[in-house]
Amino acid sequence: MPVELVLQNFIDGQFVGTESHIDSYNPSTGEVYAKVPDSGEADVNAAVQAAKAAFPGWSETPAAERSRILNRIADLIETHLEEFAQAESRDQGKPVSLARTVDIPRAVYNFRFFATTILHKTESATYLETMQATNYTVRTPLGVAGLISPWNLPLYLLTWKIAPAIACGNTVVCKPSEMTSVTAWMMCRLLNDAGLPQGVVNVVFGYGPKAGEAIVKHPDVPLVSFTGSTLIGQRITEQSAPHCKKLSLELGGKNPCIIFADADMEKCIPTVVRSSFANQGEVCLCSSRIFVQRSVYQQFLQKFVNATSKIQVGNPADPMTTMGALISKEHLNKVKGYVNLAYEEGATILCGEGKDELKLSDSLKNGYYMLPTVITDVTDSSRCMQEEIFGPVTCVVPFDTEDEVISRANNVKYGLSASLWTQDVSRTMRMCRKLEAGTIWTNCWMVRDLNMPFGGMKASGVGREGFKDSVEFFTEEKTVCIKH
Questions:
Q1: What pLDDT was estimated at residue 79?
Q2: Which of 121, 165, 363, 462 has its Cβ near the most Cβ atoms within 10 Å?
Q3: For 266-321, what is each residue's pLDDT tens digit?
């Protein structure tokens, strides 16, 4: 098959080619369909220089004008929403229906949200009567922000970083995942038309150890925002430490879903199926450990497995598909490896990989597909209960008491999110104080108010994102004292 796209870096408002490229595969077919720049230190240096040169002018641009430009970017993406959705699906493997209704609309909303919030910022002030002095605070942008985004929600999470960074007056150098770079490149094609000054947003494509590390280590990049694995987050922390950089790290998760006997099963089952297998389970917030109170354990299992078995796995372009292809052959093998490991440890596979037959058309035979898989009879210490699988695999185990399940839910190194299913408000209030998770949903999942802080505890990250928290991260607060 001929390569359909050859991407270029976007530096100082211009597209710039590179000598070498990385093959980008269509997960649904296993075929190369794009060439992504294999950027290195020289490319990053050029991008940082452009961003640094653009910073004085952009940081002095009135908030109302920055807001107008962000809204214009949102409008242009929305105008091309279907093109972006099709590209995101083909690049990442997710159903096009998901990209059309979730990923791209959220990317649009990210720009609109921060375009609005920067118009309503407030500062604090005090009057020190005994000294006849007025103190007040002012927030100023820091300079060039390094933004590194993952492959699972490509444009969704890249814009979640770009929007607050430039809204606050910073300029940026971004590196999307080399596996899902197309929609970032498409967005760059719209930035000049939106009126964004050259150099404010720069995008270099390539591998993390080359392009990503060059951004993290660069002395003219004072802050780095990263979403990805805990292992890479630890490496970024080590590399940035000599420079005392400001870091925001949204890392892995091994999220518990806790279902009590009083849960509304009619609402619980479809939501937990979605929280386990949405986006092929390639979401850091997915429910990968499901604890069910023993009195309703068998009832839940039967209904959950029945609902899971109805998930339509197949061509992401098919409107009937509810689960597409995993991101790569290597990742598919890794996820399947965890299922094999569960077998070896004596677990029971109730449905999915190794249990049921996956039927695919000939055109999809080389794609990276697997069935959603439900595992039981696993111990809390097993690797399937301790490690982030990041695929369509979830474990279901029984519990008896509230204190027991809190202890078991917290018994992992991660602390990103949790979800509770109960009608008891008092129980909810008690448990939310004890569960070690940055976000706790009750009787729902993935209901997000962007005004609220988002981030993890323990090995799930450092810092928070959201209206107030993102503004605080992308600015420096100063205290000004004026003696009368």
A1: 98
A2: 165
A3: 999 999 999 999 999 999 999 999 999 999 999 999 999 999 999 999 999 999 99
| Residue 168 bears catalytic tag | no
Catalytic-role residue among 250, 282, 436, 465 = 250
- Report whether pLDDT(2) > 70: no
432 given a catalytic annotation: no
* Parallel/antiparallel/unpaired status of strands 223-227 and 246-250: parallel
- The active-site residue, picked from 284, 286, 351, 395, is 284
Asked if residue 421 has pLDDT above 70, the reply is yes
The whole-model pTM stands at 0.96
